[in-house]
């Protein structure tokens, strides 16, 4: 069911929204994954093992691990790191350095260092087909669980795709990823397998080893198939310390050093978001980290957009200066006529500030809202405009509206904002509005 939901997500093109994740969030996520890899491999690097341990447990056990260090394992780990870091580029173009380190490290341990821990026995054999059974009494709970699995798997995979894009400087197809993974999870479920998702660690290891096309993923699958079909006993001789050395190199590579080098000059808000995401990724949870990062970045964006939009609410406009006739009317009735010019889009970000920015008092007789350059208005901003007009009316002012564009007029009409504006108070140009305002002032004496 989770796989089918992922296919549905892809068909509905939900995956495109992953591209809206801000760079500091992706950077913090990448660096956090790198730190997790390094921390979890510190114990195997020196011959110790803590199966299933998390980051906090691994760090807590580190002093004891160092005290009980296996020097043979530490030696082979150093050899592994030396191979992956110092192999000449001419050789790297022919054979990936992790593969070289894996083969040499395994042979050295097998022949000379019997005291180094290895993977040991690996289960083999293929699973049996298990057709699903539906219990209608628990179907609601099953759908809920499937939705959670589908969402977590989709988010994890698409974030992994963003990391891969950042490393390879390419662009993935999010919806294709969701459909492909959904098909995989659907088929895996038929054999009693647990649902899978994008693995950032293995993806980066793949890329760093030279993988650039789907063929590398297919080779990965074939190797795992070979292991379960009978090569497991050979793979069981691979030392933990060799794998730890390879993965530590991967962890160091995945850390976003490019952004960290800019940390002194980068905007402080972006640095703060990156640091929060990194910390939550390492010590809490990947999904929580990304969720907090996106929410924080979104709130920051809303605040900045609010400031920018409110800058477009002003009493006079340098972009649309007054004509001599308009200037004369405004100067003649400066004490009675209040005119505000609003340009650009106006949405919920600035709705609250809009009512505060337009300072209407009972000292004036006419308010003119020039909306001729307003390109967009949403529900929140529309209600804010209605509040401004209502406030002006309550204070005894005549409120005129100028230059409603079709898109803006349509929104205001659908929300009923224009119902409270007399038809003759909606004018096409600012010149007409100022002339009409002069007439209203003259009538009121």
Condensed summary:
The protein has 445 residues and is α/β, with parallel strands linked by helices. It has helices spanning 2-11, 23-45, 55-67, 71-86, 89-92, 97-112, 139-168, 174-189, 200-208, 214-235, 240-254, 257-261, 268-283, 286-311, 324-332, 348-357, 379-394, 406-414, 430-444, and strands at 313-314, 337-346, 366-377, 398-402, 426-427. The longest helix has 30 residues, at 139-168.
How would you describe what is shown here?
There is one protein chain. By secondary structure, the chain is an alpha/beta fold. It has two domains: 300 residues, no CATH class; 132 residues, STAS domain (Transcription Regulator spoIIAA, 2-Layer Sandwich), CATH 3.30.750. 63% of the residues lie in helices and 7% in strands. Helix 17 links the parallel strand 3 and strand 4. The radius of gyration is 32 Å and the shape is elongated. It starts with a helix and ends with a helix. The model has no long low-confidence stretch (mean pLDDT 86).
Beta fraction: 5-15%
Alpha plus pi helix count: 19
* SSE-based structural type: alpha/beta
Average pLDDT score: 86
Distance between the termini: 74 Å
Helix content: 55-70%
Radius of gyration: 32 Å
Provide the succession of SSEs.
HHHHHHHHHHHHHHEHEHEHEHEH
Q: Identify low-pLDDT runs.
A: none
């Amino acid at each position: 069911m989770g796989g089918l939901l992922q296919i549905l997500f892809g068909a509905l093109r939900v995956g495109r929204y992953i591209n809206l994740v801000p760079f500091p969030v992706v950077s913090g996520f990448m660096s956090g994954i790198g730190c997790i890899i390094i921390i979890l491999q510190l114990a195997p690097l020196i011959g110790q093992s803590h199966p299933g341990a998390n980051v906090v447990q691994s760090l807590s056990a580190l002093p004891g691990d160092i005290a009980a260090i296996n020097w043979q394992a530490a030696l082979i780990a150093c050899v592994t790191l030396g191979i992956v870091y110092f192999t000449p580029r001419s050789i790297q173009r022919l054979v990936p350095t992790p593969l070289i380190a894996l083969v040499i490290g395994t042979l050295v341990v097998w022949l000379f260092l019997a005291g180094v821990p290895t993977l040991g026995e690996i289960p083999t054999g293929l699973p049996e087909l298990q057709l699903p059974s539906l219990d209608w009494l628990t179907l609601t709970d099953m759908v809920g669980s499937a939705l959670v699995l589908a969402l977590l798997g989709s988010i994890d995979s698409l974030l992994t795709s963003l990391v891969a894009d950042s490393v390879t400087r390419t662009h993935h197809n999010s919806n294709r990823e969701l459909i492909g993974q959904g098909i995989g999870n659907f088929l895996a479920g038929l054999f009693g397998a647990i649902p899978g998702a994008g693995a950032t660690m293995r993806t980066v290891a793949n890329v760093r080893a030279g993988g650039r096309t789907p063929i590398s993923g297919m080779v990965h699958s074939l190797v795992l198939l070979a292991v379960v079909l009978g090569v497991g006993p050979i793979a069981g001789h691979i030392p933990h310390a060799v794998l730890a050395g390879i993965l530590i190199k991967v962890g160091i590579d995945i850390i976003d050093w490019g952004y960290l080098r800019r940390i002194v000059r980068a905007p402080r808000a972006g640095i703060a978001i990156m640091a929060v995401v990194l910390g939550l990724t390492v010590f809490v949870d990947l999904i929580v980290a990304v969720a907090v990062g996106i929410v924080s970045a979104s709130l920051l964006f809303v605040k900045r957009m609010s400031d920018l939009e409110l800058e477009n609410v002003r009493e006079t406009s340098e972009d649309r200066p007054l004509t001599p006739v308009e200037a004369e009317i405004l100067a003649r009735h400066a004490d009675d006529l209040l005119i505000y010019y609003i340009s650009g889009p106006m949405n919920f970000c600035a709705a609250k500030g809009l009512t505060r920015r337009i300072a209407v008092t009972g000292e004036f007789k006419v308010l003119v809202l020039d909306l001729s350059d307003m390109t967009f208005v949403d529900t929140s901003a529309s209600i804010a405009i209605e509040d401004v007009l209502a406030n002006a009316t309550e204070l005894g002012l005549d409120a005129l509206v100028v230059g409603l564009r079709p898109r803006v007029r349509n929104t205001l009409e659908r929300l009923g904002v224009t119902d409270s504006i007399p038809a003759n108070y909606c004018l096409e140009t600012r010149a007409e509005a100022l002339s009409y305002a002069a007439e209203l002032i003259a009538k009121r004496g």
